[in-house]
Write a structure and sequence with these properties.
single chain; alpha+beta; Immunoglobulin-like; five-stranded mixed beta sheet; 2 helices; about 35% strand; disordered N terminus
Length: about 140
């Protein structure tokens, strides 16, 4: 029993030493492991009217089914014009941005950083995409 107590004391002392040596000497308070998502996160617009892409979600459709925007930070506003819950996601970027509106007049705002390319946006509420709630997003340099 005496040896077990000594062993537990030694293990506890080692754990305390490991914890106390794990200090952070960064002066900015960060731990130096900022993830890629937060490093490239675009800032959401302050209002629906300030969004580069303004989508109205009606019944089971988006009022506009195609947008062309320049590459980089793209601000997006989704406004509920119908009575059903709707969402906005970009195919292949679902984990980067998802906007949701649930009641008439509700607005959700967001932003995403996208390089040039062609993308598909859609509503990921069950059954809505199949009923036509999708569109095309063209991210193009204005010189093209």
């Amino acid at each position: 029993m005496k040896h077990l107590t000594a062993l537990l004391a030694l293990v506890l002392a080692a754990m305390l030493l490991a914890v106390s040596c794990g200090g952070d000497d960064d002066t900015d308070g960060s731990n130096g492991t900022e993830d890629a998502a937060s490093a490239s996160a675009a800032e959401a617009p302050a209002s629906f009217d300030e969004a580069a892409m303004q989508l109205d979600a009606e019944d089971v459709k988006f009022a506009v089914d195609s947008f062309t925007v320049p590459p980089g930070d793209i601000t997006i506003g989704l406004e509920q014009k119908g009575s059903m819950q709707h969402s906005f996601v970009i195919e292949g970027k679902e984990d980067d941005l998802r906007l949701v509106v649930t009641s008439p007049g509700e607005v959700d705002l967001g932003a995403i950083n996208l390089p040039e390319g062609a993308y598909v946006f859609y509503c990921d509420i069950a059954g809505h995409r199949g009923l036509g709630m999708e569109g095309n997003l063209y991210v193009l340099d204005s010189g093209q």
